[in-house]
TrEMBL record:
<keyword id="KW-0028">Amino-acid biosynthesis</keyword>
<dbReference type="Pfam" id="PF20463">
    <property type="entry name" value="PDH_C"/>
</dbReference>
<dbReference type="InterPro" id="IPR046826">
    <property type="entry name" value="PDH_N"/>
</dbReference>
<protein>
    <recommendedName>
        <fullName>prephenate dehydrogenase</fullName>
        <ecNumber>1.3.1.12</ecNumber>
    </recommendedName>
</protein>
<dbReference type="InterPro" id="IPR050812">
    <property type="entry name" value="Preph/Arog_dehydrog"/>
</dbReference>
<dbReference type="GO" id="GO:0070403">
    <property type="term" value="F:NAD+ binding"/>
</dbReference>
<dbReference type="InterPro" id="IPR003099">
    <property type="entry name" value="Prephen_DH"/>
</dbReference>
<comment type="similarity">
    <text>Belongs to the prephenate/arogenate dehydrogenase family.</text>
</comment>
<keyword id="KW-0520">NAD</keyword>
<dbReference type="GO" id="GO:0006571">
    <property type="term" value="P:tyrosine biosynthetic process"/>
</dbReference>
<dbReference type="GO" id="GO:0008977">
    <property type="term" value="F:prephenate dehydrogenase (NAD+) activity"/>
</dbReference>
<comment type="pathway">
    <text>Amino-acid biosynthesis; L-tyrosine biosynthesis; (4-hydroxyphenyl)pyruvate from prephenate (NAD(+) route): step 1/1.</text>
</comment>
<keyword id="KW-0827">Tyrosine biosynthesis</keyword>
<dbReference type="Pfam" id="PF02153">
    <property type="entry name" value="PDH_N"/>
</dbReference>
<keyword id="KW-0560">Oxidoreductase</keyword>
<dbReference type="GO" id="GO:0004665">
    <property type="term" value="F:prephenate dehydrogenase (NADP+) activity"/>
</dbReference>
<feature type="domain" description="Prephenate/arogenate dehydrogenase">
    <location>
        <begin position="3"/>
        <end position="291"/>
    </location>
</feature>
Length: 294
């Protein structure tokens, strides 16, 4: 049982973990810290946290588990604010979408990685943000990746894994660079592509001349372009190289598609689309298996 869980950043992810931990009876008290006073008040009003606090050190002082769930480029400032009250008996973790930069930030702040800091990432979310979007089922049957380093204490990893499992997630471990490369492909590139497509069309569509005729396909492809802009700016700056490599790959692939269309090579286009459809089916089978396995 966690006596006091502190959530720094009570938004979609922090709020959802607080709700799930409470519902599963994993913690007695939740203290929320947030830079946005209105969001913090809302978290209290909704009963997501017992107490709200504007100051990171004060909120985390007596906690036995602290989750940092702020945009990734804000992690270093939060770790620096935690440093004076860092407690060797407590466990600290984060939910950031990128991991190498979080480990580097911790090394900069502490000189070396604290044994009781366990970087993590729930592979679950939504295009909505803030505590109003949070819900206790967000992590059910979803994956959480932990990226401990050689210095990380196994007992701390165990404690964080138990928290996420208690919220319904399946926990695995990965090397941080591998994590960032994989997520650049399956999460960061799709977001960049969706933002770019909608920006391109939106600039020429200020009078709604074409959006008026857009339907399900456009809606499905672009849902994630409604995601929080600051969160995605931070992810792109934190995971620059892997994302740039994937953008280059997509540029090449689009070039190939354009060449096939230009040359009227229907057979090759058909093959490419069939190959993509089969690959998506393999993804769906894996995704659904993961769902039903639990
Ligand atoms: N949204 C997703 O789908 C998703 C999924 C997995 C992981 N993540 C990661 O989780 C983290 C949180 O994302 P979210 O979707 O919950 O965002 P969110 O905007 O819903 O919540 C973030 C909260 O952090 C607060 N905050 C920002 N800077 C702060 C600071 N310095 N000190 C205290 N509070 C601060 C904000 O006011 C906000 O309430 C990000 O690192 C994101 O990359 C997001
Ligand atoms: O479902 C969504 O809307 C998401 O954006 C979730 C999503 C993703 O799947 O790309 C986004 C960022 C995360 O770090 C993890 C999950």
């Amino acid at each position: 049982m966690i006596e006091r869980l502190c959530i720094v950043g009570v938004g979609l992810i922090g709020g959802s973990l607080a709700r799930a931990a409470r519902r599963a009876g994993l913690c007695r008290r939740v203290v929320g810290v947030d830079a946005d006073a209105a969001n913090l008040q809302r978290a209290q009003a909704l009963g997501v946290v017992d107490r709200g606090c504007a100051d990171v050190a004060e909120g985390a002082k007596d906690a036995d588990v602290v989750l940092i769930a702020v945009p990734v480029q804000a992690t270093e400032a939060v770790l620096a604010a935690l440093k004076p009250v860092w407690n060797s008996r407590a466990v600290y973790t984060d939910a950031g979408s990128t991991k190498v930069n979080v480990l580097e930030a911790a090394e900069r702040v502490f000189g070396s990685l604290p044994a009781n800091f366990v970087p993590g990432h729930p592979i679950a979310g939504a295009e909505r943000s803030g505590v109003d979007a949070s819900h206790a089922d967000l992590f059910r049957h979803k994956r959480v990746i932990l990226t401990p380093a050689a210095e990380t204490a196994p007992a701390a990893v165990q404690r964080v894994a138990e928290l996420w499992r208690g919220a319904g997630a399946e926990v695995s471990e990965m090397e941080p660079l591998r994590h960032d490369q994989v997520l650049a492909a399956t999460s960061h590139l799709p977001h960049v592509a969706a933002f770019a497509l909608v920006d391109m069309l939106g600039r020429e569509d200020e009078t709604e001349a074409i959006f008026r005729y857009a339907a399900g396909g456009f809606r499905d492809f672009t849902r994630i372009a409604s995601s929080d802009a600051a969160m995605w700016r931070d992810i792109c700056l934190a995971n620059r190289e892997p994302i740039l490599q994937r953008i280059e790959g997509l540029r090449d692939e689009l070039g190939q598609v354009a060449a096939l269309i230009a040359s009227g090579d229907g057979d090759a286009l058909l093959q490419l689309f069939q190959r993509a459809k089969a690959a998506r089916q393999r993804f769906l089978d894996l995704y659904e298996n993961n769902h039903h396995a639990q």
